[in-house]
Amino acid sequence: MTALITASSLGVRLGGRRVLHDVDFRIAPGEIVTVVGPNGSGKSTLLRSLIGAVRSETGTVTRKDGLRLSYVPQRLQIDPSLPMTVGRFLDLPTPATGAARQAALAEAGAGELPARQLADLSGGQMQRVLLARALLNRPELLLLDEPTQGLDQPGSAAFYQRIEALRDRTGCAILMVSHELHVVMSASDRVICLNGHICCEGHPETVAQAAEYRALFGSGTGGALALYRHEHDHGHAHDHDHGHDHNHDHGSAPRHDHAEAG
Ligand SMILES: Nc1ncnc2c1ncn2[C@@H]1O[C@H](COP(=O)(O)OP(=O)(O)OP(=O)(O)O)[C@@H](O)[C@H]1O
Ligand SMILES: [Mg+2]
User: Fold this and answer.
1) pTM for the complete prediction?
2) Which residues pair with residue 202 across a beta bridge?
3) Ligand 1 site-directed mutation target among 10, 19, 50, 177, most atoms within 8 Å of CB
């Protein structure tokens, strides 16, 4: 299948430092790929290279002709004193029709928000508005840089569930950055573990078992994985009940031998 974006031997240098090297990456239509890695490992830089916002030092990035792509950056600076409704925000930079705006908001789970002031939104509402804005040009590829930052675990799980439903309905491919392996596990087809280069990649469970991944994140994440499995087995992964304290206490995660091995 033709890839939407292909990077070959990609290397990026910023401020004299080598940030990425020898990165080979491709994403196929409809795929959900999650990039994990420590702070400063080049995750945001990789996304920015793929959209052409950062110049590569070596290698190539090839995008499918006419690729419709939406990108939500990790940080969006919005002046809190700026009066602007959600509806108006969605019209920037390109005005959308009322119907398109409402459809995008509904898809992102923010259907009730168009008249609200941006500055008044909670973190989770803002993430949904940013997703709605990204959906307006009907992307074939959606790049989301830490879309669940600041959300609690049920909020993150709900967000990933929404992303998966979006992919299933529209066939849109999604490349996102996340630190939350335990929730990412359920929604990703492939996980890439990045630390300046691709340390390991594959099915989420395979990556979680990889020595390279363990070296970066330690075996504690095995507990997180076990936690996810536990929740998943019992149908709690997408539960919105904030009262489940096992959602917030990784230390008491059930220990499954297969998740803790190695
Ligand atoms: N414009 C820049 N000039 C110089 N160095 C930069 C620039 N942007 C990023 N860097 C450096 O490149 C490295 C990778 O940064 P990047 O933002 O891609 O990391 P990240 O994996 O997204 O981290 P985080 O998890 O904190 O978001 C860091 O060491 C960062 O300081
Ligand atoms: Mg980043």
Assistant:
1) 0.82
2) 191
3) 19
